[in-house]
Design a protein that fits this description.
This protein has 10 helices and 6 strands. The strands form 3 sheets. It has a two-stranded antiparallel sheet with strand order 1-2. It has a two-stranded antiparallel sheet with strand order 3-4. Helix 2 crosses helix 4. The longest helix has 14 residues. About 20% of the residues have low confidence.
Length: about 210
């Protein structure tokens, strides 16, 4: 398997015993459920990554990932939500255990946002099990108009390490130049994340 720059060397996901004992999962289905659960745990996030990300992280193939995702959905363990952004169909996945507690709303770009502050790879991109990263919001960009927490910022780096900071600054400058402070003052950190993620995806810097 080629080295995937999206996955940092010290990244890992946690398989908890109840996933085996209570859900009866094994093999690739177990690994993929554990990864997505790590993204959506604590009722505050969703997996928006690509099939390639899951395939690389589990040393599998896209076909294998597709089969496992389909099976997990059929078993009612994952919820898949489709949305269209700039004419392109995209989807997110949430572990069913928390899916009914997570609400979504459309962003300006037709994406999907969580109504509460997201924990991302969502709880923690480098260590999904470790939920110790600060949820304190921080201001990003030259003018400080973009608000994220550590988890969301790290997740942007995972999705597009090369362009994440550039697109944060683009949005920050856009807000400043067009005096959109009032409009964006109502944005939660996860909405800023979705906005930037959509910009990256639109320009081909995030793999679909």
């Amino acid at each position: 398997m080629e080295n995937n720059k999206k996955i940092k060397p010290n990244s890992y996901y946690s398989i908890q015993y109840w996933m085996i004992n209570e859900l009866g999962l094994k093999g690739l289905e177990l690994s993929i459920y554990a990864i997505i659960y790590g993204f959506s745990r604590d009722h505050c996030g969703a997996f928006t990554g690509s099939r390639s990300y899951l395939a690389d992280f589990t040393n599998s193939t896209k076909a294998g990932v597709d089969k496992a995702l389909k099976s997990l959905i059929q078993k009612n363990l994952l919820e898949k939500k489709d949305f269209v952004n700039h004419g392109i169909k995209n989807c997110i996945y949430v572990a069913k255990e928390v899916a009914n507690l997570v609400s979504y709303q459309s962003t300006e770009l037709g994406g999907v946002a969580n109504s509460v502050s997201q924990g991302s790879q969502l709880s923690c991109p480098n260590n999904i099990e470790d939920n110790t990263l600060s949820l304190e919001v921080k201001h990003f960009g030259l003018y400080g108009n973009v608000i994220l927490n550590d988890e969301l910022y790290d997740r942007l780096l995972i999705e597009s390490e090369e362009y994440a900071d550039e697109y944060i600054n683009r949005l920050d400058s856009h807000i400043e130049m067009h005096q959109l402070h009032k409009q964006y003052s109502a944005y939660a950190p996860n909405q800023f994340f979705i906005k930037i993620f959509d910009m990256l995806r639109r320009d081909g810097h995030v793999e679909v």
